[in-house]
Design brief:
Strand order of the largest sheet: 4-6-7-5
Structural class: alpha+beta
Shape: elongated
Mean pLDDT: 77
Number of helices: 8
Number of strands: 10
Length: 241
């Protein structure tokens, strides 16, 4: 009577490399990256490099069947049929095509979700970097206001003349919205009564560009009032023809 082969508890990273014709160290790096994202789990183990004389111990990573699909989907999806054959051979069971298809579908969904999370994380980090850069720039204390720059008091008057926005709305765009321009720096107020205080100045071209974008994105709710995702409530603005 032929003895049935038993289903292995795990597949090694070296077996995956052999299956995909991929370097073993590349497979291990992929498994490590996926594990960092909590997409797979692995158990370190040791195998011999080959049978016979001259063999040496080799560190391998062991993954279960489900995680092997995720690894192969990341490395070489075109070789998924080989992985199907591997598990069917070791299971010694009839082919289970729907189960295999579902496993790969789940693996690809998990990888796509991980990419979306990474993209969202990158967007958050970029926003944080931009805020840090604005703060660092703002710490630069200048002796005089640079040419083609303006303080918040001056730009309020200029932007009101261009778009009819109130000081409150202008301040909200400049200080709270993600499109706020970076300060050109901080200028020391030399007036005696200012007692060495400083004020922020902004490049005029940057301020103009921000408010041109802002006003284009505004939505009219009445003839005189508008809304914008960055501003809470309604506000007045001169309608642009």
């Amino acid at each position: 009577m032929q003895q049935l082969t038993t289903r292995p508890a795990a597949m090694s990273s070296r077996e995956i490399g052999d299956l995909l014709d991929t370097r073993h160290d590349s497979v291990k790096r992929t498994i490590e990256r996926l594990a960092e994202k909590d997409l797979v789990r692995f158990t370190p183990s040791v195998e011999t490099s080959h049978e016979g004389a001259g063999s040496r111990p080799v560190e391998v990573y062991l993954v279960n069947e489900r995680d092997s699909y995720v690894v192969v989907a990341q490395l070489s999806p075109e070789f998924t049929a080989r992985l199907v054959d591997y598990w069917q051979e070791h299971k010694n069971e009839p082919a289970q095509i729907p189960t295999t298809a579902e496993a790969f579908a789940q693996a690809f969904r998990m990888l796509a979700d991980a990419e979306q999370r990474d993209a969202a994380r990158d967007r958050r980090l970029n926003l944080i970097d931009a805020k840090v850069e604005r703060i660092e720039t703002a710490q630069t204390v200048l002796r005089a206001r640079p040419a083609n720059s303006e303080s918040i008091a001056h730009l309020r008057k200029r932007i009101w003349g261009m778009f009819g926005l109130s000081d409150q709305t202008i301040d909200a765009v400049m200080r709270q919205s993600p499109i706020a321009p970076k300060p050109a720096g901080m200028v020391r107020n030399d007036r005696a009564e200012a007692e060495g205080s400083t004020y922020a100045v902004y490049w005029k071209k940057d301020v103009t560009k921000v408010f041109e974008v802002f006003t284009r994105e505004c939505r009219a709710v009445t003839d005189h009032f508008f809304t914008h995702p960055f501003i809470e409530g309604r506000f007045k603005m001169a309608r642009r023809e």
